[in-house]
Amino acid sequence: MPDVTRRQVNSVVGSPTGSSPFYRQLEVYFADQARMNESLRSPRGQEAGRELDPRCPPAALTSCLRTFTRRQGARPLQERHPDMQALKDRIAAEGQNLGSGILKIDSILNHQIDPKLMFEMGEAMAAVFRGLNVQRILTAEISGICPALTAGYALNVPVVYARKLKPITMAGPVYLETAPSHTKGAQVNLLVAAEFLHPHENVLIVDDFLASGKTLAALARMVRSARANLVGAGVVVEKSFESGRTYMQQQGFDIPIHSLVTITSMDDGKIVMA
Asked: For the chain, what is the largest distance between any 2 Cα atoms, rounded to a whole number of angstroms?
């Protein structure tokens, strides 16, 4: 289902009154009740409802989910990380709209790096995903490395970056995917040595931009090929008008995605942020 921020499966060993007729319990977390309701009404939510055991009618499921959301105090994601107004202000002041959906923020992220701001970004990412038991971060060179590194530092987990060219030191099995580059105007290779993606590990993807979603999907395919668990994706800037989230869902990656800044329009040379 869309907009799920976390899933957890529990084994049921009993109930307050004795034995339980249930064997497993799936906990599904949403940012808030409104998103939960939208998810349940979506085509994928309806499909999931049709696959339920007949003993669990949809009305009972909805009631249970509403109660869980209220009692657990699930908060919207934007309330669970430090304010990134400083990043928005820098983009407003220094970002350049080059047309064709290309945003230049070289003085912040893609050429020059502000270390203090970068560590604030990393901590913001970590605050959102800390509850998902992240064990490894995957990103793509070059501009994804800095935000992934600072998020990895905050989460105390290793960071692996997909390389675009295979060095002579990369021996043995390799995961290879391709993705289009907005700035290069061509397909680029993404390579990760199999020794750095482990089966059953919880992997978080962190990157600089989410636009069409094709780079994110390429990294997600690597995680799937490694038989690891993709628990989410965090990006510095999302261009929501390019529908990258929808593309990820269409590719079968129904994961929580969080952006520090969302750009809703770049029409008429403007940079409009949410």
From this structure: 65
